[in-house]
Amino acid sequence: MTQNEARKKAEALVAQMTVEERAGQLRYEAPAIPRLGVPAYNWWNEALHGVARAGKATVFPQAIAMAASFDTQLIHDVAEVISEEGRAKYNAQSARGDRDIFKGLTFWSPNVNIFRDPRWGRGHETYGEDPYLTSRLGVAFVRGLQGDGETMRAAACAKHFAVHSGPEGERHRFNAQVSKKDMAETYLPAFEALVREGHVEAVMGAYNRVNGEPACASTVLQDKLRGSWGFQGHFVSDCWAIRDFFTNHGVCADAVEAAALAINNGCDLNCGDTYYFILEAYEKGLVSEETITRAAVRLFTTRYRLGLMEGSEFDSVPLTAVEAPEHLALSKKAALESAVLLKNNGLLPLDKSALKTVAVIGPNADSRNALVGNYNGYASRYVTVQEGIIDYLEGSGVRVMTAMGCHLFKDRYEPLSHAGDRYAEAAAVAEASDAVILCLGLDWTLEGEEGDAGNSYASGDKENLLLPEPQRKLMEVIAQTGKPVVLCLMAGSDIDLSFARDHFDAILDLWYPGAQGGRAAAEILFGDVSPSGKLPVTFYESIEDLPDFEDYSMSRRTYRYMPNMAQYPFGFGLTYGDVRVTGAEASAGGEWLTVSATLENRGDAQTGEVVQVYVKCEDSPFAPANPALCAFSRVFLKAGETRTVRLPIAQTALTVVNDQGERVVDGRSFTFYVGTSQPDRKSRLLTGKDPVEIRWTL
Questions:
Q1: Is the confidence at residue 561, as pLDDT, over 90?
Q2: Closest Cα to residue 332, out of 379, 374, 299?
Q3: What is the β-pairing status of strands 592-601 and 579-589?
Q4: What is the pTM of this model?
Q5: Active-site residues: which are they?
Q6: Pairwise CA distance, residues 331 & 63, whole Å
Q7: What are the sequence ranges of the domains in the chain?
Q8: Where on the phi/psi map is residue 420: left (φ > 0), alpha (ψ -120 to 50), or beta?
């Protein structure tokens, strides 16, 4: 049913409700209205990388991992699976009267905030630091989740609107001060794309203030959203964010004023308890009946579009859809495409015919936490990296020896032991092996959301880019054995890899690879599949390269504005092949340019690869300091294969954002860089490849 048809039905239904009944529907745990046949509904549901917090579901790699795939079709397909499993679970549970939290179809995903600072604990929920990449992947997710049929399969939600990326400990009182240029160039493009192109059904407001206004009651942001962009869906607050209006931000005296400010400024749904005071605000004349009605109509419009009020073609999706074999296969495919090979001196892929014993060492080797990230579902089977390698090598004659090595962050594993109680075992196992697979990193207990992560000292954020001290010591212990080592990093953000770079033979970033992650890791390590992911974030050499965490200016931030060389750059990732762009040309037509790139795999291994196009306006003072991503395409090439790929580029790539936040044509001379990485100096050094340059003049 169309938006207009659903709205008319919603208007007719809401017209039959009392003011009290309408106000009651504006809370996330909306009660039933039996006399009108309205069932209870809980709006709070999560699906960042699989149906979350609602029992069994396919657990895909974390969002930041899937961003490393640079694969819009993959993201679309993952979201489509999520919507199918969500329907299956909703059908089974609602039929039994279970309408509890996390069991509905309004999913508060994706998170399209910009991962502007590697210290932010929630950064692994995002698609990285680049607004273009984030917008393309976000739109793909929304389209996959919502579908394009008469009925929405599920409702997506773009969060957190806007200018939200830490610090977590300050989010309830923080005022993000951001320029008009940075707002329009960096913080808003993904939200605009999800609204204009993806037709996302919901938008969630952030906790923080934005230039003084609470994000959940910002007239400036609402004017953009419903005015300039034409948003037709509903707006929801982050959870208990409206309570912050009077408890932390100090913009209201009490809950009554806070509820009035939020709903009057466009917040239809409250995740929290402040909208219990809507009726009191109404009785005091702070909120009109028309405003309450408007919000209720928007919410019931969504419920009608989902077929929750009158039934739909999705009511027959069976519970057997959950963790279907093809869904688990897609999860493994996502893990395979997400892995980023950062270093390889020839150790990888491992040749099992030349090995007698392999060591698998480290606190994340056999960790389920390191597979799932946060906002996750619960798999029926988890395959850790250790399990994946043991299963892969079964029957091959290769012995697998394992050791914990150290605790994830404590100085000892057993409380009664001395500090470093697992180092000797790890060293012995390494010395008895032909090669070492060292699994280090973090998990959601160390980087994540305030209140969820266990590192209370930083509220889920990282204080620096270092691995915990016990893991740094373990790296030294393993390096001293002199054995060949591949470091498998399992984390959701930039980690200082300088020691591993200098002492180990290979570095493979697995991120949080999902419940099938161990199988994928084994297939990559032993060469069944070539790694092909690219970094969606910059790995900085030092935290000293960055401004203060609380500074929301983009100056010196991300690959577009950083003045120094990265440790590992955005867009970088090696493969077992050798794909080069051997030629490229551009042509214009209507609202689009087209770059045609010829790729050749000169290596001996077939591989996936990501061709990337960056653009630099050479004669405008408003252009980003460095070339910016404007197109990408994932391709697959057999050994020796040559292929031509055409990449469409919007004419907006030839514009800049001025200091007033206006996107304008302000230059005539442009350079396109076409390659398999960024055109920066460090990428050229690491790959030994130069991109093809195309000069373009307006």
A1: yes
A2: 379
A3: antiparallel
A4: 0.98
A5: 238
A6: 12
A7: 3-313, 325-537, 579-697
A8: left
